[in-house]
Amino acid sequence: MARPHGLTSAMLRAVPRAELVYANVLDLRVFGAEGPGGSPVVYGFGVPSRPLPFVVIRHWKAPQGVVTEHFELIAPSGRVTYRSPLRPRRMPGQMDLLELVDRPGDAVFEEVGLHVASFLVDEEVQGQIEFQLVLQLPPTKLPKEYEDAFRKTDAIWAGVEQDGRDLAVPVWFAYKEGRIYLLHSNDAGAGEQRVPGAPEATDLLVVTRHKYRDTRSNRFHATCRVITPDDPEFPALAAILADRRRDRHGPPQEAIAKWRKSCVILELTPTITV
Fold this sequence. Notes:
Radius of gyration: 24 Å
Low-confidence stretches: 1-15
CATH superfamily of the largest domain: abc- transporter (atp binding component) like domain
Mean pLDDT: 90
Number of domains: 2
CATH topology of the largest domain: Coagulation Factor XIII, Chain A, domain 1
Structural class: alpha+beta
CATH architecture of the largest domain: Distorted Sandwich
Strand order of the largest sheet: 11-10-14-15-16-13-12
Largest sheet: 7 strands, antiparallel
Number of helices: 5
CATH class of the largest domain: Mainly Beta
Distance between the termini: 60 Å
Helix content: 10-25%
Number of strands: 16
Shape: elongated
């Protein structure tokens, strides 16, 4: 087909494939209270970690047809923090809007501050907006169903998600003021529990189950902080864990001395909206 007179290749490429009429990235609670026009802010308990639940909203106007669409979340350093899957979208035509709302459950943020959301059609950027990632103090008490689950069982399942599947094992634990504490050993011969993904993972999967029944109670992610034997917090937390150890033999001091040689303590902060 002949090119219209006066149009260069660069000018043709500049014609947008779709018009981004509106977009926002915001905390799920803000979205529920204020709607799509709420403040563009996402909250977390630490970095790097998964944030509290949030949504990505965009309204497209484009000629009728099928395109591929996705978005990227870009950190203050310029690194891409999250890239959504490319999905085919059927655009309804210039007289209608295509409204999309995603809730990315697997995004992990590594930096606080001003981020950029970039929206792409057929892998070309059509628009961008800014949003803040803000850290807040985690709660010292979780919703009752979670507190009850920790109180009524001696074990939880902990690990990581891998290729869309849960890679988790049963572990004994201690719970205190909104945080879960696990003992983890890198030494396979130490005879202590080993949590898949630890100690490198900054985000761990946790599953609670009903006592005496193999049925799931809650499933959630938690920010993971590693406490090493030379950390000032280690002795006090190890004492709490020693109290919880049902099959411990000998006094707590013996167990703690053994743990100092081959174990770390994992502090898990559930990323749960209270």
